[in-house]
Amino acid sequence: MNGSSFPESKRRVKSGPHVEKKLNAAFVRKAGPGRHADGGGLYLKVDLSGARRWMLRTVVRGRRRDIGLGSANLVTLAEAREKALDLRRIARSGGNPKVRTREDEGKVITFKEIACLVHERKFKDRKNNGKHIAQWIRTLETYAFPILGDLAVSEINQDDIEAVIDPIWTTKAPTASRVLQRISVVFDFACGRGYRTTGNPAAGMLGTMRPQGQKAKHFSAMDYHDLPELMKRLSRQNVVGALALRFTILTALRSGSVRHARWDQFDAGLTEWTIPAEMMKTRSEFIVPISMHAREVLLTAQIHRTNGSPLVFSSPSNPKKPISDNTMRKLLQTYVPGVTVHGMRAAFRTWAREDTAAPDDVAEMVLSHAVGSKTVQAYNRAKLLHERHKLLEQWGMWAMGEFELYADPETRAAEVGRRTIQMFASLD
What we know:
It contains 19 helices and 8 strands. By secondary structure, the protein is α+β, with helices and mostly antiparallel strands. It folds into 3 domains: 17-104, 2-Layer Sandwich (Double Stranded RNA Binding Domain); 113-208, DNA polymerase, domain 1 (Orthogonal Bundle), CATH 1.10.150.130; 224-425, Intergrase catalytic core (hpI Integrase, Chain A, Orthogonal Bundle). It has a 4-stranded antiparallel sheet, with helices on one face. The protein has a two-stranded antiparallel sheet with strand order 5-6. A two-stranded antiparallel sheet has the order 7-8. InterPro entries: DNA_brk_join_enz (IPR011010), Integrase-like_cat_sf (IPR013762), Integrase_catalytic (IPR002104), Integrase_DNA-bd_sf (IPR038488), Integrase_DNA_bind_dom (IPR025166), Integrase_recombinase_N (IPR010998), Phage_int_M (IPR053876), Phage_Integrase (IPR050808). Residues 1-20 are annotated as: Disordered. One of its GO terms (biological process) is DNA recombination. Belongs to the 'phage' integrase family. It holds the Pfam family Phage_integrase.
């Protein structure tokens, strides 16, 4: 019997792994718990907690291995497929892809994912003291995850951990000590696995913290009267750190949301930015109205976009990764020593209260702070969009030193109205 006697379908079957693509971006965002195959050994693994990460199952030197490719919140489906293909090639050539990926994985695997893994391993075979087992991860969920949860373990510094610990160091002293100890355990594990090459950032922090009888210091804030001069200096630069810092100040948002901003989160006219729930401290989707000056920053960032990166403010060394938290902080402190990026939100809040007499609910909503009951919050989130846009237009005018041009309140109000209308007209 010759080959021609076989059915056509059988003669066309290829040996090797089947790599037909089965997943799509929408499914990756919404997939429920379990392991979901994309083909070619690539899987999306979703935990009961909702954490989702990529895993490649392949054969390395005759043995089947599972290799983590990072968080699905940070690594896109296309990037995961690209990494999987690259690592399969290394494995086929006799190399060990796991050695190569461990440090790279630390750049994408999140603190939350490592913490959940540590919790699972630490209490895997323990049946007693269930309350303690639950509290171990719950304290991290309550205090650490809102700030550290979505950050890559290799990018977290002592400043980030202080932002978790400092507010509760004296008010909830026993809890703060436990949280710090548990954070340190998570980073010990990350260092041991090779996800960090710079050591445990929590090591030695206990000895540098103030006595727990002292009051916490708030984030250092800049006097808003000095802001126009700072913005003038930043406007002379088009480097990514300066653009990101200007955009953070003009939107009055937390730096984490800005650093991870993606172009597909903005509308066509760059007049609104929809931040996904997982990138917000409130864990609720948030719509940000973009002022004229903030839009100018985005347009400049588009011109300097690197290799079609999906990120608005990507790392110069790796366009697929966001800039580090230290990028903006170091730049800010070269101009205003001691002031923090987070403290710029306090400068906005003080300005809104003292110079504009803006309603508290509008100013608080700009900062994405919860106002009132859940029902009131849902109502206000839509109702106050126009009011927030007008307030942010005024903030942009103040920050860029334009208030002197519109000293008369009526003239200023008319200009704010004109700019607001112009921004929405850009969609037509």
